[in-house]
Amino acid sequence: MAVHEYESWLLLNRSDAELKAAGVAVPVVGRGAKSTMKKLVPDYAPTVHQLEETRRINIAFLRSRSQSFDKLVRCIASLCGVTAPAIQG
Fold it and tell me: I want to staple 27 with a disulfide (CB 3.0 to 4.6 A). Which of 11, 40, 44, 81 is the partner?
């Protein structure tokens, strides 16, 4: 399933324990991920916080949790003429 907001990937990059502690039952895949990020990052604003949150991405972990992110990784690898590594776990 395609994600509608970049923040959906940022949420899926968080552990289940971290999400639960913030009161996020299930990461948002549809609309509303930006507002959900505010539960994890006070006063979340994409222009201020997105770069820092993006730097936290664990590519292997996020690939295992998001089909759309996995597809992005595979497409980028293909464009580079390589095969993306298999997902661990």
Answer: 11
